[in-house]
Amino acid sequence: MDYFEMIQTVLDYIELNLKSKVALEQISDAACFSPYHFHRIFKAMADESVVEYMRRRRLSEAAKKLIETKERIIDIALEFQFETQESFTRSFKKVYKITPGRYRLNGAILKEFERVKLNVNFLKNVKGVKAMEPKIEVKKEFKVVGMRGSTTLKNNVIPQMWTNFFPRMAEIKNRINYDSSYGICECSDMDLPQFTDETPFNELVCVEVKNFNDIPAGMVSKIIPSQKYAVFTHRGPLDNLRQTYDYIYKTWLPSSGHEIACKMDDFECYDARFKGVDNPGSEFDIYVPIK
Known about the structure:
Blueprint: H1 3-16, H2 25-30, H3 35-46, H4 50-68, H5 73-79, H6 85-96, H7 100-106, E1 135-139, E2 142-151, H8 158-165, E3 181-185, E4 201-209, E5 220-224, E6 227-235, H9 241-256, E7 266-270, E8 283-289
Antiparallel strand pairs: 1-6, 2-4, 2-5, 3-4, 3-7, 6-8, 7-8
């Protein structure tokens, strides 16, 4: 799959439908992998979610019409698929810090949000990240037990989940490899076009076990099927983890010749190399499912 071409197609589709009522299901059909992965790829290349990008482009074109025509504000709002003048005004003010009416009275376009123009050469480099070639490996089926919770990319509660889980690890029977633990981002059937930084998804913090005997209260079990992965090693503190993921989805994936595996979880594996969230000597592995 040519991910650069796929995102360009999405951008073209959005541009053609700024005045159309669309739910973007066609984007979902084109991307057979999880909404979580699609969101990461699109945001890495366009710097925002599909929903946010489309709303911003509609507001930009509506702002031009406010200055260039004498059409009623309500008509412009409806033309660009805002259900009411009130919802248009709220969105407009959030971006331009001024109401549409006063913006028109000012008579000058304050800021235009032009469509994203992808630069394929730029995608080859991400500032601050040294190019890392992943290992490609098939990990056999394994069983895990742990604690599941809901989080978002914007309001990340995963650190708190680990804080809650660590004291209870000793309750888990039949553990395998006491040095390792996993943070699994679970794939779901959520609506792809509506996935944003504020969309909840499930995270499972867990350890590997031999069997599911005597699962502690409040914990869950899961079987992770055999799967091929691209395995990346993140080095350093967690505050630069975003750069590693940007490298994976913006630089490596579009040029790798590999495809994201449909409907499969990705996960992080922490072992003895992980020395703490702020330690510059820390390392852990990121498993991205591929075909």
